[in-house]
Amino acid sequence: MLRQMAAVVISLALAAVRTGAQEPGLPAPQGDSVLSGVVVDQLGRPVSGAQIALTTLGRSMRTTEAGAFRFDSVGPGRYELEFRRIGFTRQVWTVGVREGGTALLLQVEGTTHVLDPVSVRAARIGVGGVVFDTAHRPLAQVEITLNGGRKVRTNDEGQFFIPTPPGRFLLHARQKGFTTRMMSVVVSRDSGGQVALWMSPATRAAAAREAKVMEDFRSRMLYRNPVWSRLFTREDLNRLGFERLEQMAVAGSGQILPSVVNNEYGQCVATVDGIYSTPLWTVDPADIEFAEVYGSKPPRPKRGNLSSGPIVDRHTRPGCPQVYVWLRH
Questions:
Q1: CATH superfamily of domain region 118-214
Q2: Does the pTM exceed 0.70?
Q3: Staple 126 to which of 29, 48, 53, 163, CB 3.0 to 4.6 Å?
Q4: pLDDT digits (tens, 9 = 90+) for 110-148
Q5: Could you give the CA distance from residue 289 to residue 130 in angstroms, rounded to a whole number?
Q6: Pairing assessment for the beta strands 276-279 and 288-294 based on DSSP bridges
Q7: Which long-range contacts (CB under 8 A, 24 or more apart) does 159-162 make?
Q8: Which fold, 229-327?
């Protein structure tokens, strides 16, 4: 499992950000058994609406307009703190809480700005669109795949079209030297999907990791059976209005999740972007572009049926459905 981790006990101000940026002051502790702090970007500006998860205790919250967060009833010790927000790199810290409480100043790094993908309905049944780079130039020969299967390449104007039956699809756009872009698309009986994507440069290591993730995704799509699995697009999630990922897991699998006992939080997990696993409660449905949920194997599958049961993920806990989520980036 690939994870970006930094082991830090923050008791002094973080180093100043790059020249010309603001240097925010370290917040003061807010009381005994209180873990509080402020999240800022590289320019020292507050990061509001970010999800801060105290994973060790199974608790999470969103930062305020001032970038602040606060967890009460946190005794002295070491805890894992996770940060996630669209437009920023996910980060995990190990922090220490002292007698009298601890206040943190957390600086996070934004990702390269790329325009959000755009999707609209189209009269032609299938999925079509155009792909650009960050300078708004059309990209030719970009590999477009739907659910890891059907493939086409963009023409010299960056355009593509894939005829397809109605369904829910996760579209991936891949090009050497660029970060893979993805978005969910719904094709109905009377309308297709028309999309616009912008791609940014990528490192060689990122490309190798994405290739492995894509192969795993393609295998799941090949062997999945709609009897015990369900796909959710961004459009589905908006319509269904899930407030917690646990609700989506139950709706998608038909399983009752194992109850939380003896303070063992996060018994069921989700695999995020095909890279790392995290407890279901740490993922906000509002941050998800596409999701896969696999329930229990159906009884007595037909002989010769490739879809005889879910592909077992090493992170899946006993009694839990397999959940894969692709975040909006």
A1: Carboxypeptidase-like, regulatory domain (2.60.40.1120)
A2: no
A3: 163
A4: 765 555 566 656 667 889 999 988 778 899 999 999 988
A5: 19
A6: unpaired
A7: 159/128, 159/129, 159/130, 160/128, 160/129, 160/130, 160/131, 161/124, 161/126, 161/127, 161/128, 161/129, 162/126, 162/127, 162/128
A8: Ferric Hydroxamate Uptake Protein; Chain A, domain 1 (2.170.130)
